[in-house]
Amino acid sequence: MSAVLSPSRVSGGRRLLRQEAIDGYLCILPWILGFVIFTAGPMLASVYLSLTEYDISFAPKFIGLKNFQKMLFDDPLYWKSLYNTAYYTFIFVPVHLVIALLAALALNLKLRAIGFFRTVFYVPSIVPTVASAFLWMWIFNPDYGLANNLLALLGLPPSKWLFDEDTAKFSLVIMSLWGLGSAMIIFLADLQNVPKSLYEAAAIDGTGPFHRFWYITVPMITPVIFFNLVVGIIGSFQIFTVAFVATQGGPNNATLFYVYYLYNQGWQFLHMGYASALAWGLFVIVLLFTLAQLALARRWVYYEGEVR
Amino acid sequence: MTMTRRGLLTLFGQAGVASGAAMLLAACSSTPAAQPTTAPAAQPTSAPAAQPTTAPAAQPTTAPTAQATTAPAAQAAPTSATQATVIYSSPDTDPPLSLAEASVVKSFNDKNPKIQIKIQLFPGQDFYDKLRVLNAANQMPNLINMETKILPDYVFRKMVIDVGDMMKANGMSQDEFWPRQWQKHQFNGKTMGVPIEAEDVVIFYNKKLFDKAGVPYPPKQWDDPSWTWDKLVETATKLTQGSGATKVWGYNQSNWWVYDYPHIWSRGGTVTNADRTKSTITMPETVEAFQFRADLINKYKVHPTAADMTEGIQRLFSAGRVAMNLTWCEWAYYIIDVPDLDFDMAPAPKVKIAATRAPSDLIAVGQGTKDQESVGTALAYLTKREGIKQMVVNVGMVPARKDSLEDYLKPDNSKAQKLNWNLPLEGESKGYAKYQDVTVKWPEMDKLITAEHDVLLAGKETAESFAKNLDPKINELLASIPDEARGFVGD
């Protein structure tokens, strides 16, 4: 006797599947509508606007690829902003990852009141960026700021910090490092998931702490390192608030970051078309970096249970 | 009754349809009918909104947004049978200006129960940008207190309307205003706003610091032959003393490049030609002026750097750390109540001629204003003698009206009565105040020069290089002005 379903049972099954699919789409309909209206729609509009000259007072005037041409070949400030952003990103992200990991390692120890220390390290990351920017502006004040007081204690000459184009970007890196809590928490969670048996086995074999860290801990947390790296680079390329609050792109455009420049073009000069082109330029750059990281990840990211 | 999985999914699906429909309705519905919000009358910040400082007023947003920080204004409120609402927008968020404005509005509202003015403040430096966005949304305020230098841009964008008829209907005429102030607000035979004041730039000086250094006070009259820019440097050098956190600087002026105009004009230089079609920034006199300005910081070292100015000039002058400050005359009311601060006003020095800048303010009427009768009544009150008296006697603004002169010379504040108020007045009335190169491209030209100016003041380039870099860019901007947008006399 063959186990073949009757035609009525087959069509009934398909009907059920179709109905479930419809139910599923209906459930996610609010999200779809929100995405279309508030994300995809504006993105499509900005694609069009990037090909126009538009300053919101008058109708957009189609100019083809002139905005992109200006961006790439005729706008020194574009390259300056890109350089500043890349400088910030490629210094901040690695340092941020290292310090967050070291903090997580320290906070993973079994110590009394460790919860208090975890809170202390995490709280700065939930302070609003604007508030922390103001706080750091005071710390970096060349006349009476704590930073120069600390340098004086160490016998070092004072710095102009945010007021010198040679140190302004680095000052913003330090400012941003204060909010390492988010990455630290993610590292901490993953450190606690590393199987203890691996450390026990390594200890039995006589490996020291550094070797255990380098050959067990790091490989086991590479997925989280990769995640923080990707998210960190995406976030760093979009740095805006600290420049807007603390330096307004100065001194001498030293902290003119890409998104801040985009904001100036869009909202101060009302070059909406050009700002749209800048936005798409940033999208392409970040996409390329993300794809590159995904491609390279296969070489160094190890997922537990993966077979190579 | 038990709920099956399919039943649950169906229920969620129906809920999803309902919420999706609600979102669509919300997204497609029009903005609420006229319910203008009353923004708080005074939002003091650390620096006056209209005064450029090296440390910008701290009103940041966490993300770039096109929305006004206060709720958007309704378009000109419809006249109801009982009361009309007039939205009045102003960038003056700091006392004393904000308090004086609030007082004027209150007195109008008390006298006119059928017409109520609601003040809408946009704090921060983005006031004009926010209004452009509101214009794009067809939600311009009815009345706008704005700077004359922005007027050409707003006229070009059709954001403000001709107020000639409103003025006539309320018994106002050209003859009430000083000719120079009147001319600034004319465009192709139309009156694009009612002038209210001029802000003549003078030098404030701390008498005690002068006494301590044994230096005679600056003169009280314009065009004093002994009061030259070189003499100012000599005076400032004697006043500059100390180091570190207690250093006293001899002289300060805003790092905003427009404050270099007194230097430029006094040497006979200009930034553009008379009809504003060509840049003249590379003129030797103009270059010399910009170089002198930078030398005040880097060569003569009598002027603080940007790093020294983190506390803001108001605090530094009040604390006796700056002996002379070149700024707008109304600044007197920002420091008038500082204890033990004995100061007065002196003219800007000269090289060939004495010259200063005197930017003006006006009240314009936003496009889309429907209830012109009520708005006209409010406009007339705010710009006639009775309306601006509060501003004149409490804030020290040099009135654009002839009949307000008497009020101007009798400030309410007893300390202010001792100040040299004739000085700003003469700056305006005797022609020492010149026209800034204001065109429809002023906002862009301002930002262009400002960015490069920071480099000059930091000593990273010479004035010659600065001028050479800017010259083609300014020419490009001026060439892009449509012919129909030319014709403003300047500010």
Question: How would you characterize this protein structure?
Answer:
The complex is a heterodimer of chains A (308) and B (491). Chain A has 308 residues and is an all-alpha fold. Chain A contains 14 helices and two strands; from the N terminus they run H-E-E-H-H-H-H-H-H-H-H-H-H-H-H-H. Chain A has helices at residues 7-49, 66-73, 76-107, 114-122, 129-139, 146-153, 168-177, 181-191, 196-204, 209-220, 222-237, 241-247, 258-268, 272-300; strands spanning 52-53, 61-62. Chain A has a two-stranded antiparallel sheet. Chain A starts with 6 loop residues before the first helix and ends in an 8-residue tail after the last helix. The mean pLDDT of chain A is 92. Chain B is α/β, with parallel strands linked by helices and 491 residues long. Helix content of chain B is 37%, strand content 12%. Chain B has 18 helices and 14 strands. Chain B has helices spanning 5-28, 97-111, 127-136, 151-156, 164-169, 179-184, 207-213, 229-239, 261-266, 284-298, 313-318, 332-335, 372-383, 385-395, 405-408, 422-429, 442-457, 463-479, and strands spanning 84-90, 115-121, 143-147, 186-187, 190-191, 194-198, 201-206, 252-253, 324-328, 343-346, 356-357, 360-365, 398-399, 433-434. The longest helix of chain B has 24 residues, at 5-28. Chain B is globular and about 95 Å long.
